[in-house]
Amino acid sequence: LKMSWFWIYLPLHLLTATSLCHSIKAPTTSSQQSFKTNLFSFYHSLILADGKETTIHLLKDIPKRYYFVLEEGRVLAPFSITVTPCDVPIEWSILVYKSPPGKATPGDHDTQEISKSQKASSMVSTIFNYKGNSVETYMGMSSHSALYLLEFLSTERDTHITVYLTTDTTSGHLYPELPMDPRIDVIAIGHTTVTLAWKHSPSVLQHRESIQYCLLVNEKHNYKSLCAAETAIRSSGMKLPPTLALSLSPYLLEPQQVMILSNSELSIINKVSSGEVRQVCMGTKNTYTVPNLSPSTQYYFDVFIVNLLTNASAAYTGTFARTLEEPEPKVTELKDGKVIHVVLDGKKQKLYSLQYQARHKKIHFTFQLCQGQIRVHIARNGRTVASENLSGLRYFSLKGKPLDTYLVQLRSTEESNSSVKVQASPHFHKPLFPLLPESLKIKSFSKLRTCRSVTIAWLGTQEESKYCVYRKRIEEDQIWRELQSADRCSGPESRHKSEKVLCKYFYDLNLQRAVTTETIKGLEAGTLYLFDVYLFGPSGIPVRYHSKVVKTRKKC
Question: What are the residue boundaries of the Fibronectin type-III domain, all occurrences included (predicted)?
Answer without folding.
Answer: 176-313, 434-542
